[in-house]
Amino acid sequence: MHTTMREFRDRAAKFGLDRAECTDCGRMNDPTAELCYHCGGDAFEDVTLSPRGEVQTYVVQHALPETFDTPLPIAIVETPEGGKVLGMFTEADEPHSVAIGDTVTIELKRFDRQDGQVLYEPKFRLDGGSSA
Amino acid sequence: MAHVTTRELVLPGYRVSTGTIRDQWGGGASGVQHKTVQAKDDDPTTLATRAGRAALDGRTDVDAVFFATTTPVYEYGSVTPFLADSLGLDDDTHVQTFGESARAGTAALRAAGNAVDGDSDTVLVVAAEAPSPAPRSDWEKVAGAGASAALVESDGEGLERVAAGTCARPLLDEWQAPDSDTLSTADDRFARNIGYVETSQQAIERALDAADWSAESLDALVATHPNGKFAGRLAGAVGVGDDVLATPAFGREYGNLRAASALGSLALADLTAGDRLVVAGYGVGTADALAYEVSEPPAAASVADESTDLDYVDYLDHVDQLE
């Protein structure tokens, strides 16, 4: 899909951390979902996730395209609302210091360039100073 | 009447000493000791998002976002709607971008005041810079990164705007041609005396006249800090003491944050209720000065990441100048 349309479609989830909470099972979905990924329900409430959460799991990625600095921790973070965000850490000077249970702040950061466009993604910063 | 009700400064967590840069290329001291440097995945949009979120603190009742930067992400194409979206604002929020010179931040602040005196209730002003100066250039020695923000509202406690003054002169003391990647600068002494100091002084004196205040009655002067020296000279020209100039070390410690400089200094200024202050912004021959009376000082706020000192090669990588 062309970069412009993909970025526009995904903007709510990436820029605003918006999610759709299924009113049947209470689980979070992408804000553009028409059916709940988990139970098939079709009724949702709009939820904006808090820009903070806890590391649920992570990997330290050592092989990535050369535009990324490696090693780079990539994690799934759960916010207080129960939403999960998959993303990279930012400013990962000490990538192996990440641990499950660490609390992080979720920030909008530059991710890559495509077709001359700057792409943004939510990334994680360890609370209490420099990230990772 | 326009009120500034919040003020924020975001400083990224990296810095480089100008001595490190001089060790590479030589040259004299710029009055800047360190300058702040963006993370590799930061740009004006991401820094502005952090400052904007801090200023809004969860609020979304904003009529307009005015974004000021001289280091835009695109030559053609606006990121201000992306900024508004990232702040959780609806797409009926008016967005406007200010640029061209370091005055952009105070130009946006002045426009926000005019807007809330007109058809808006609340305007978010955000200024951000993430420069990528050419190696060996004069601009490399001073260009700092950071973002500042202020919420301007028609009602509320904070800084109440009393008057404004301007001085706009056809004086091109800094310029960059479309086919050049290097900022050109007029002779420093000329730029300092006729440009920054005299033009800012004119704007400040016009604001003071409009407010019917004397320079002696000022409690704080907030100014653009192009380096570590000029703001002090401006304070002397205006006739206020060193104790009146807010954050005198701003340029020396963080560098030239251009559009974010005056608003950043405002975020750190030590203010108390009843104070009279002037916020002055200068860029390329033009200055704006805004006179405020403090009804209740918005909490001075800054978000400064733990700072890491960079060597020259790492610095070039951070500012996207490493081949």
TrEMBL record, chain A:
SUPFAM superfamilies, per database record: Nucleic acid-binding proteins
Species this chain originates from: Halorientalis regularis
Domain ChsH2 C-terminal OB-fold: 47-107
Pfam families on file: OB_ChsH2_C
InterPro entries: ChsH2_C, NA-bd_OB-fold, Thioester_dehydratase-like
Database matches in PANTHER family: BLR3430 PROTEIN (PTHR34075)
Protein name in the entry: Uncharacterized OB-fold protein, contains Zn-ribbon domain
From TrEMBL, chain B:
InterPro entries given in the database record: Thiolase-like (IPR016039)
A biological-process GO annotation: secondary metabolite biosynthetic process
Keyword entries, A-Z: Isoprene biosynthesis
Annotated transmembrane regions: none
Superkingdom classification of source: Archaea
Record SUPFAM superfamilies: Thiolase-like
GO molecular function, one term: acyltransferase activity
Stated name of the protein: 3-hydroxy-3-methylglutaryl CoA synthase
Organism annotation: Halorientalis regularis
